[in-house]
Amino acid sequence: MTRIILLRHGVTDENEAGLIQGQMDGHLTGLGREQARAAGRQLSGRQITRAVSSDLARARDTLLEALEFIDCPWSTDARLRERNFGQFHGRTRDEYAKTVEESQHDPDTFCPPDGEDYAMVHERVVAFLDDTAGTPGDEVVLAVTHGGVVRHLLAHAHQRPLIDTAAFETDNASITELEIANDGTIAVVSMNNTSHLSPEQTGPRLEMI
Questions:
Q1: Is 9 considered catalytic here?
Q2: Homologous superfamily of the 2-198 domain (CATH)
Q3: For residue 52, what pLDDT is reported?
Q4: Which end of the chain is more exposed for a tag (fewer CB within 10 A), N or C?
Q5: In what order do the strands lie in the sheet with 139-145?
């Protein structure tokens, strides 16, 4: 049995500005670092076997803050990166939404120039999940990643179509847990848990694009 604890990165300057980060590194704010430490304290009593992070700075820095309270080896995996928004990196979410609307594509099938559509993201994040679950023995793995990745894994666990991926909420520094049985069955233990954050530690809630 494998338990995967998904931790979304803390709030960034780009989150607060409403800019698309995608596969840019992003920069944690002071609040984002507080959120990461709060998550680390929340998880400090868990028997975490190892941790893995997206290689983007905002996720990696979130993990490093959390590791002040968790003692385990860690690594990075590019499959945990946020969606590649191609030519829309650094532009506003409103600009992107307008372009998708004008394209007459649904959000899940629109592929930004030089970027990824939903299916491309889904393929790589599910591959990460399968590989992690396929490791022999019982493990508790902390995976620090991005809102889009968590949503795709939840859609996969619930066997929902790609268009429904955006229906799931993933706040900054939220914790979502999946349990994968030896037969591959996935149980969602918790979703978007922010009980470790005080009201002053909550960040902006942004819908998936």
A1: yes
A2: Phosphoglycerate mutase-like (3.40.50.1240)
A3: 98
A4: N
A5: 74-76, 50-53, 139-145, 2-8, 175-180, 186-193
